[in-house]
Specification:
Blueprint lengths: L2 E5 L5 H16 L5 H10 L3 H9 L4 E7 L2 E9 L12 E9 L8 H15 L4 E7 L3 H9 L3 E10 L2 E11 L2
Parallel strand pairs: 4-5
Antiparallel strand pairs: 1-2, 2-3, 3-4, 5-7, 6-7
Helix pairs in contact: 1-3
């Protein structure tokens, strides 16, 4: 797999919305009830809401491609800092996902490198993210990149209040 990374534009809004919904559902459906997943997907993670994030410039979106096929994406945002990070020059990786077929083929590392490069270009000293405490594969991936746990917050999926670890990495 030869991965190309590029920043998304508003023209990519529908692609990002579809990719967001597919990758999120594929990543978490097996660990959640159908009712909770349906509630989240139909009320929070709607195609329209996701397209609006792109169209309203709510963050920086990065796409990963294998040829013409979109195989992953990341979303970074400057807002929504956790209170525990106040005073730090931080930026968040709000989402970083690859398609199921692309897991283990270098998409995650390519997206993470792009996020870190963007954070450095923005002159940020900290990059942070939230990850579900039960997603051990993702936690191990983030630890490999130098992220360390600094707190927790609740991320509701339907009626299930799930605990996310907050992880951060200091940047040079």
């Amino acid at each position: 797999m030869e991965i190309q990374i590029r920043k998304a534009t508003v023209a990519d809004a529908e692609l990002i919305a579809d990719l967001s919904r597919t990758t999120f559902y594929d990543a978490f459906a097996k660990d959640n009830t159908k009712e909770n997943m349906d509630d989240f997907m139909n009320n929070v993670f709607t195609k329209d809401a996701l397209m609006q994030e792109v169209l309203n410039n709510e963050g920086i979106f990065i796409l990963a491609f294998d040829g013409e096929e979109a195989v992953g994406y990341a979303r970074m945002r400057e807002q929504n800092k956790e209170q525990i990070l106040e005073g730090e020059n931080a930026v968040e990786i709000a989402r970083i996902y690859s398609t199921q077929a692309a897991i283990g083929k270098g998409v995650g590392p390519a997206l993470m490198k792009a996020c870190i490069d963007i954070a450095l270009d923005m002159k940020r000293s900290v990059i942070w993210l939230g990850v579900w405490e039960k997603n051990q594969r993702a936690i191990a991936f983030y630890q490999k990149w130098g992220f360390e746990k600094f707190g927790e917050h609740i991320f509701p999926i339907g009626t299930d209040p799930q605990t996310d670890w907050l992880m951060k990495k200091a940047l040079p």
